[in-house]
Amino acid sequence: MAVAQVRKPPMGGIGKRVAYYPGCSLEGAARAYDVSFRIVAKELGLELDYLEDYNCCGAMETKNVTFWGTMLLNARNMSLARRQGHGTIVAPCNGCSFALQRAEYFLETDKSVFERINALLKEGGVDPLSEIPHTYHILEWLYHEAGPEKVKERTKKPLKGLKVANYYGCLYTRPHFYARTYSHGGTEEQERPRMRETADDDEHPYYMEALLEAAGATNVEFEPMHTQCCGGPHSLSDEQVSEKFVMMILQTAKRNGADIIATECPLCHASLEMYRHRLMMKGVPDVDVPAAYFTQLMGLAFGYSAGDVKLKDNLSDPLPVLKKFGLA
Amino acid sequence: MAIHERSLVDPERVLRKERLVIDGVDVSGDWNLIILPRVIQDYDLDFLNEVLEQPEGKTILQCYQCSYCTASCPVHNYWDERYNPRHFIHLARLGLIDELQKRADVMWRCVSCHKCTHRCPKGVLVEEVLKAILRVMAKRGVIEEYPSKKFDKFFLESVYEYGRIEDGELLFGWIERQGYQVVKDPILKKPIPFVGGVPEWLKQLAAKPLKSMNIGFLVLNAKHMLFHPKTKNWNRFKQVLRKVMEEEGVFAH
Questions:
Q1: Using H for helix, E for strand and C for coil, what is the string for B74-113?
Q2: Are both A186 and A254 inside the same structural domain?
Q3: Which of A139, A164, A179 marks a domain boundary?
Q4: pLDDT more than 90, % of chain B
Q5: What is the residue extent of each domain of chain B?
Q6: Among A68, A232, A313, beta carbon nearest to B217
Q7: Domain, as residue range, for A30
Q8: Which tops the pLDDT comparison, A156 or A191?
């Protein structure tokens, strides 16, 4: 494999002005995440530049069928971000940030991929890439550009007494090749060039915990289920496995005393809600923990109403729980 | 003798008697266990080369079989111990296609959680390598069409056609392909969520926004289901996409 010169990843901050890649889900079924994220960003003084006319990232599905097609889909989005003058993209979905970071990895480390993709982009009527933009998850972005202290400052209605289980899902910090997190595996020379300071801890992520704690919530112990898979790309095609995984996640949360599960990925969120309903229909015990996006909880803490952060959109119905704590 | 990875040994090759006494010595249970020897001749060395030709399969040679991937794998740990990424890589490198074919019923079960890739101390992109192996197996026809591949293709069709996916179409389209009777409106031929033979859980979930009078949510999603969101100027890009995917043989299998 021809290895191109690996760029030094940005150290320190990520940048206040970024291209916002919402992804298909956030424009439809997961609109609550989009709306509440915009509220939180506005409240924390951060500016979002909507990525115009983007296409689907291919998620986890297309990459199993076509390597070049998936590269091309993501390179188009990267090119659009460059056209809008951005070197950084933030994505709210684990799948989207994974797909963009994966493309970044292959474009960076394999020169033949980079050249072929550029030629194809030109053919498709899109500007070829001169520089490859970096992609971050919005959680990392919020943590680094606003941080827990600012969240604490803005909190008007602390989430007092609310016990939250923080569910990160799989691809937020994994794999380190793409997400550029630190890994305990591998030699130092292998890791260093791609590692970055802004990344969350790989096996014990804590950014969401820190932000929600600053908003007044109590975090319950949720290891190791906080990074356990929810079934992900198989949540529709392999129901047996997904159902078991979700059952494990929900029961661990419930038995550790959580009132609510905070999520940060629309696919994980949908999967948890869908299988929660099915498990409850089957009469499985200890699975009735509702789920809410972490931005929704932050929005509530900032003094917005349940209607503002679209809590009604959550099919697992967290309203009664939040009402109990006087938050909705 | 205990067998550490018993799932790797075919049950018919294991001989074991629960009660056995030989010359007055009690050798019951594992004391009399014998694994029948076998001779392997059908190595297919081209298989490894084909995996190496895949862009994701290039790191397969770095593997030193430590089994950290298998130890991390949730499918192995919580579902079926026959799902063993380390062993699949081993078999692919030896070119033992028969052995891979025996495991075809579990090989597709990877949920892409990337614990294996993340933790690999040798820098093997394990998840990607396994997908490359699956793809080569599919090309050779040693693995039948499996559910996740059907879904992947269905997903890709939607991306390819419009540039974007739409949750409702994905969900109901997939349910329909599973053989459920989805009722469609007569004019636009779009699915109606609350009636017909869709599973009960889906009916109940779809009715929730209706019950809570969540008008905004209903209107937005109905709009998207009726008029699929589309990326502008997609047609020119679509042609390039088609060309690339044709080269890869996506439309052939």
A1: HHHHHCCCCCCHHHHHHHHHHCCHHHHHHCHHHHCCCCCC
A2: yes
A3: A139
A4: 59
A5: 6-35, 45-140, 161-248
A6: A313
A7: 17-139
A8: A156
Q: How many CB pairs (< 8 A) connect A and B?
A: 207
Partners of A113 on chain B (C-beta within 8 Å) are 55
The Cα B133–Cα A48 span in angstroms is 41
Check whether residue A309 and residue A167 sit in a common domain.
yes
Per-residue DSSP letters for B45-72? HHHHHHHHHSTTGGGGGG-----HHHHH
State the virtual CA torsion across A284, A286, A288, A289 in degrees, nearest 10. -140
CATH code of residue A298: 3.40.50.11810
Instruction: Mark yes or no for CB contact B201/A277 under 8 Å.
Output: yes
Residue B250 predicted with pLDDT over 90: no
Model ipTM value:
0.91
- Is A7 a domain residue? no
pLDDT tens-digit profile of B171-221? 999 999 988 888 888 887 888 877 778 889 998 998 898 888 889 999 998
Q: Which member of A27, A69, A244 has the closest CB to residue B229? A: A27
Contacts with B74 from chain A: Cβ below 8 Å = 228-229, 245
* A101 occurs within a structural domain: yes
Q: Is A110 on the interface with B (CB under 8 A)?
A: yes
Q: Structurally, how many domains does chain A consist of?
A: 2
Is A317 at the interface with chain B, CB within 8 A?
yes
